[in-house]
Structures are given as structure tokens and as C-alpha cells.
Amino acid sequence: MSAGPCEVxxxxxxxxxxxEFLGVADPALQSSFEHCRDIALTAExxxxxxxxxxxxxxxxIDTLAFAAALAPSLSRMRLLAATxxxxxxxxxxxxxxxxxxxxxxxRLSVNIISxxxxxxxxxSGPRYARTIEVMTILKTLLDGRPxxxxxxxxxxxxxxPRVTTxxxxxxxxxxxxxxxxxxxxxxxxxxxxxxxxxxxxxxxxIIDDLTTRAARRGRRLRFGxxxxxxxxxxxxxxxxxxxxxxxxxxxxxxxxxxxxSLDSGSVGVRRQADLRTAAGADGFIEDxxxxxxxxxRSGCGAALVGDPDQVLAKLNAYRALGVEAFILSGYPHVAxxxxxxxxxxxxxxxxPLA
Length: 354
Fold this sequence. Notes:
Blueprint lengths: L6 E5 L21 H14 L3 E4 L9 H8 L7 E7 L5 H14 L4 E6 L10 H19 L4 E4 L4 E4 L14 E4 L3 H10 L2 E4 L4 H17 L5 E10 L3 H11 L5 H9 L7 H12 L5 E3 L2 E2 L12 E4 L1 H14 L1 E7 L3 H11 L11
Parallel strand pairs: 1-2, 1-13, 2-3, 3-4, 4-7, 7-8, 8-9, 9-12, 9-13
Antiparallel strand pairs: 5-6, 10-11, 11-12
């Protein structure tokens, strides 16, 4: 098992991704300040260490604005704010990150998203090259150092912003992506490499590969695992809850939801689709890993489904591979956060990543 406690985070559904019945819009569960605040406060009260705030140009509400408004309501939990880094001028983004970290008392981490700009399609290689530049710029400025940068995408001579993070250092960067370009970018500049659900042996292979790539650069990556959960008192009840979640799904509506994401054609998204195709008739690709969620969701498309002992055992098996952070979600997010917090979280040795 990996040494020390793991970080256990929940998901703040800013991106219009909350349902009682997957694919069936419910106005009460759509992205709004009030609803997403309720998810966050439920997660903090339940004992989660962190909360991922996703980012999508066409979906939901703005991540950094929401985080700033939420900050005074939190006393303990960290926020993991997603930033589509190519959409903003990096020095200004550095100032926003430092300000937000101050509002949170030093409890901010950043999920770097390598995304096309709205209306732009940039090939994978240049897009990830731009992401590496952005991470370099942000780390330099947020570490309080003057920047002299001559890159392909940015040419900057900039002093660090006057406002600093509480620690005076750049917050932890979480980063995901399955393509060759994404793996190289992670090895260059990420702190925590995030994976979407996959077969156990595939997860092991990804960790081994990224560990080797980082070591070539004299770096060490930590690893995170992003997955949905459906946990109930018994496995039969958990499977019934998963079936109920899909019971009103129209396949055409599910396809439309999958296709509206800006990253719907990425290597990682295609891998999630491959897992659904390879799964059994019941949607399970291996014990307790269910691919049904991906029928109406782009990105992370599988869930841990089972009783508390089964879900705990699965999480601990990932920890034994070297996973140090979990980002979990479930539908509806308030209700599933409460269930996981009561049935599983107290049995995990967990704490925020340092």
C-alpha cells in the first residue's frame, strides 16, 4: 500500500453534470451558485479533503468566480480549481490564483486543463506545448521569481505579482491526459497525474510509464484517480441504484451529452468508450467497475459500484499501486457524497496532499 494517507476529494458539478436520472435534466440540479455551494458544504461536512471544481466554456458557471464566492463558507476543505490554461493570459491567471489562494487561507490546488480555445482547433502537439509553457510561467511567477520567457506561444518579461500565495510557492498542479503528448507534458510540469477509470492492470501500466518519464527529468509524479461511486449497504442495492440511474436514459440524448464537451474527441475519451464496448452485458468491465455512467457523460465514464467493503477494497487496491489522491463523484452529488462519507470515508486513512 502507498505510504501515508490518501487525499479523498469530491466533485463540484459546476459543469451541468448532476442528475437523479442520468441524461434527464432537472432544473433543481443544474449548475447554479446555490446548488454547487450545497454540494461543497455537504462535502466539507462529510470530511472530504478537497473539492474539484471543473471548467467548461459552454457548460455551467465560471470556476474561479465560484471558488472566490465560496471561499468564505469553507473552514477546512481545499479547492481544486480547474483552469483551461490557454484561454487566459498567464500572468493574469497567476495573479488570480494567488488571490484565490489567499481567500482560501492557502488551501488551493489547480487542475491544469490542456484545452482548445472555444472556436479554435489546435493539433495535440502544439496544444500541449502551449500547456507546458503556461505551467512554466505560472510556476515561475507564483514562486515569486521574475519571468524572462521566450517560447513558441509566449514571449514575456514580467515581474511576479505583488500578491503571493500564502506559502509563497506555486500551488500543486493536477493534470490528466492519455495521449503521448499529454504524458510528456505531465512528466514536464505536473505534480499529480490524474487518471480516468480503467482496468486494474492498465492503471498499473500507466503509473509505471509516467513514473519512468518523470524520472528521466529528475522529477517525481504523484498519482490521482478520478472515478464515480455508487455505494449502498449491499452490493445488490448498489447495482439496483446504478440500474435506476440509467432507467430513463435516451441513447440519443446520451450521445448528445457526450459530444458537447470540448474534449469529446480526445484519446482519453475514446479509451472510456472502448471500455464501454468491451464491458459485459451488465456494463461491468471488471469486478465492481461499471461503465454505464459513460453512456451519458464525456470524460470519466465509469463508477465503483458495490457495498462499503467492496468499494473500500477497490480504493485500497489502487493505493497499493501508488495512487495517492482520489476524486470521486456520484449522482445526485449531494446524496452520494453523504452516502460515501458515512459508509466508506471514515474507514480510509486520508488527508489533503501536502
